[in-house]
From TrEMBL:
Family (UniProt): Belongs to the iron/ascorbate-dependent oxidoreductase family. GA2OX subfamily.
Molecular functions per Gene Ontology: gibberellin 2-beta-dioxygenase activity; L-ascorbic acid binding; metal ion binding
Key word Heme present: no
Species name: Capsicum annuum
Keywords: Dioxygenase, Iron, Metal-binding, Oxidoreductase, Vitamin C
Keyword Metal-binding recorded: yes
UniProt-listed Enzyme Commission number(s): 1.14.11.13
Catalytic activity as recorded in UniProt: gibberellin A1 + 2-oxoglutarate + O2 = gibberellin A8 + succinate + CO2
Protein name, as recorded: gibberellin 2beta-dioxygenase
Coiled coil: none
Entries under SUPFAM superfamilies matching the protein: Clavaminate synthase-like
Amino acid sequence: LVENFSHIKTCKNNSTSSDHHDHTSNVIPVIDLLDPEANTLIIKACQEFGFFKVVNHGVPIETITKLENEAVKFFNLSQIEKDKASPANPFGYGNKRIGSNGDVGWVEYLLFTTNPQLTHNNSITIPGNSLLFRALVKEYVNAMRNMGCMVLEMIAEGLNIEQKNVLSRMLRDEKSDSCFRLNHYPPCPELLQTLSGRNLIGFGEHTDPQIISVVRSNNTSGLQISLKDGTWLSVPPDPYSFFINVGDSLQVMSNGRFRSVRHRVVADSLRARVSMIYFGGPPLSEKIAPLSCLMEEPDEQILYNEFTWSEYKMSAYKTRLGDNRLSLFERK
Ligand code: GA4
């Protein structure tokens, strides 16, 4: 049994039982989108954590649960059925393998592009009620795009940028290269998670290359974020809220003011974790560089060389999951 997992990484379970955890579990910023102070609080959260939780988001619970139920139905199918939607290169069903450079995790997933102009998705046959599945994904992704854009507009306001849609327009663009991921982390056999006090890695540590990611999970824990001092903080699950990650592209556009948050998922639970993530990205041809409207102080150094999203993506797909992908674009 143990041999079957030997290729999947483990990590010390340092953040679930210590006092440190009790002390820090309240620190994840919670942003009430209806709070008049929300803009300022979001900026602080993006600087300090690159991560925050969103409440009063206005997304109907039905939009979420209808899709979650279909996803669970899919993941409950037999392996033979699920494999009909594989491989994920890059879109489709994937099992344990993440990307194409040798990364593995205790996870299975479905990956979609949200761009209807790309034909990739049409070639994925999702066993079961494919039409219903697609319709629910479409509805959900729409809601995520709207919320993601709302947050990006609040960020622009919080940064005192005149053009409110300077970031959100990239997600709204019909050519926006965004994607959507459904992850299923099966329960991890008890024996393995307690093996020498280590947890099995569900999804290895990484940052997201896009602008922002909107994460929703069921009530099972597992997500951890890396704090500035390098310690890992477990994020208590909350199926009624969303979690926002700052991605690499937003770190660049903010000229390093915001942190692209490193995060990972540990399979430390006896229950399955199901997460649904919208990755808001720019059009492939979009130039990503520190926003000129932020660079008006003459002594502020430009930290990154300009690149197109297409260049960054190509470079990212050549990296291992845990690599620091932005280091190649830092201005020396
Ligand atoms: C991380 C964020 C998204 O899940 C993702 C991932 C992608 C994949 O699973 O195919 C990547 C990873 C992610 C970054 C580096 C490359 C590409 C796996 C990998 C090793 C869909 C994305 O856009 O980048």
